[in-house]
Amino acid sequence: MRSTHPLILLLALALSACAPALPAREPAHADRLPVHGVVAVDQRHLQPDYWIERLGPAAQRPYLDGAAIARQNAALVARDGSVQDISALPRTLPDATVREWIAALSSRPQGERYDATGAVLPATFFDALEAALALDAIPREQPTRYGLVVRRADLRTFPDATRVFSRPGDTDIDRFQESALFPGDAVAVAHASGDGEWLFVVSDRYSAWIERDAVALGERDTVLGYGSRSPALVVTGATARTVFNPERPEVSEVQLDMGVRVPLLADWPADRAVHGQHPLFGHVIELPARAADGSLALLPALLPRTADVSPQPLPLTPANVIAQGFKFLGERYGWGHSYNARDCSGFVSEVYRSMGVQVPRNTRDQSVSPALDRTLFDESDDHEARLAEVAKLQPGDLVYIPGHVMMVIGRENGVTYTIHDTTGIGYLDAGGDLVRVPLNGVVVTPLEPLMAGEDTPTVDRITSIVRIR
C-alpha cells in the first residue's frame, strides 16, 4: 500500500462507490476503532459551519457569477451528448428516431435477474416486458407532444414498476430504476406502452419510461416556457412541500426537491384565499396538474413561509456548496432516486442545481463532460502525481472513481474531506485486513485514506476531477 500520510499506517477507508456494500466484517482490532466505525470523522466534521468557518472570507467569494453559469449551462447543451434541449426537437418524430431512443434503454438483460423474494424471474416475464414496449404501434411519423411532470416520479427501464435485482437478497439496487423527474420538469412524449399506462419521455438529461398519470400534456410553448417564467422560487432545502388543502388534491402536499424552480404568482390578490387558506402567510406558486383527460392545468398552490426557498438560485460560493450538501446529510441512499431519495450523482446534481448549475445526470457523463473543467486520469498517472492533484482540491470539487462521485468540503491536517451518497465504506484495520462498513446514506469521510481494495488506494482509481469554478 502506497501513501505518505500517517493515517494509512494505521487505518484506511475503502469506498464501495454507488454499488452495494459488502457485508460488514469484524475488525481484528476493534478496540482501536471508533464505535461508529467511520475513522477520522468526529462530531465537528458533521457541522457545515465547521468547514465554512475554516475558509474565512474566501467562503463567500463566488466561483462563478450568474452570467458565467449561464454560459456554462449553454455549453453543456451544445457540447455534451448526454444533455439535450428538447425545444430543439423537430415538430414531428419519425418512427426510426423513437425506436432508437427506446432500444438504447429497454434492452433485455443478459444474465439472470431476481424479484424481491429472491426468485429468478422467468423468460416469460421479460417476454411480457418486450411486448409491452408496443414497438409495432409506433406510427411512421407523429407530432412531437410535450408535457409537464406533475409529481416526483420514477423513470424506468421498461414500462413496469416491478423491482428487479442482480442478486437474491440484494434489494437496494433495482436494476430497472433509472432516475426520477420532478414537478415542473418538461418532457417530450414519444410513445405509450401497450396498455397505455406508461409513457416513453425525453427530458433534458434522460429518456425513459414514466407512469402516464405523472405527466400532463400541454401546448408546446406553455410547457417549454413554464421553467423560465418569472418571478419564481427555487427550492433550496432538501425538499419543500405545498401545504395541505382539502379542495385540490393535485397540488396538496406536493414534494418539491432541491433545485426545483416554480413560478411565483406575485400578483395574487392579497385578500383572496388559496383553496380556503389566506395567502399572507405563504408563497402563492403555480404548479402543473393533470386533468382527467390527461391535459395540463396550471393551479395555484401555497408554500409555507417556513419553506427553504429563494427568489433566485443561490450564489455559487464555497459556503453555499457546503451548506447545500449538508442539507442531505444522513438521507438514505436511493439508487436512481429510489426510496424518495437520490444516489451519488443525483446528490451532487441537485446541490449544484440549487445554485443554477446544470450537470449531466450520471457519474459516467459528469466525469467526462466536455463542457466542464475536468482533469482526467489514466493508468499512466502514478500515485504521487494523483496525490498532488488531490492536495489542490477545493470545496465543491467533484472526485470520480468508476461508478461513484464525492464532493470535497475541505481539508484538515493535510487530509481532504468529502461528502457523498454511498452504500458503504471500508478500511484496513490495524492488522491490515480490509473491513467494510455499510452506510447507505449521505456521509462525510476523508479521501486520502480510502481504499478500493486491500492493495489499491482509492486515489489510484480516480478517473476524473471536475471543478465547477
Automatic annotation (TrEMBL):
<feature type="domain" description="NlpC/P60">
    <location>
        <begin position="315"/>
        <end position="446"/>
    </location>
</feature>
<dbReference type="InterPro" id="IPR038765">
    <property type="entry name" value="Papain-like_cys_pep_sf"/>
</dbReference>
<feature type="signal peptide">
    <location>
        <begin position="1"/>
        <end position="21"/>
    </location>
</feature>
<protein>
    <submittedName>
        <fullName>SH3 domain-containing protein</fullName>
    </submittedName>
</protein>
<dbReference type="InterPro" id="IPR027017">
    <property type="entry name" value="P60_peptidase_YkfC"/>
</dbReference>
<keyword id="KW-0732">Signal</keyword>
<dbReference type="Pfam" id="PF12913">
    <property type="entry name" value="SH3_6"/>
</dbReference>
<keyword id="KW-0645">Protease</keyword>
<dbReference type="Pfam" id="PF00877">
    <property type="entry name" value="NLPC_P60"/>
</dbReference>
<comment type="similarity">
    <text>Belongs to the peptidase C40 family.</text>
</comment>
<dbReference type="InterPro" id="IPR039439">
    <property type="entry name" value="SH3b1_dom"/>
</dbReference>
<keyword id="KW-0788">Thiol protease</keyword>
<keyword id="KW-0378">Hydrolase</keyword>
<dbReference type="InterPro" id="IPR000064">
    <property type="entry name" value="NLP_P60_dom"/>
</dbReference>
<dbReference type="GO" id="GO:0008234">
    <property type="term" value="F:cysteine-type peptidase activity"/>
</dbReference>
<dbReference type="GO" id="GO:0006508">
    <property type="term" value="P:proteolysis"/>
</dbReference>
<dbReference type="InterPro" id="IPR051202">
    <property type="entry name" value="Peptidase_C40"/>
</dbReference>
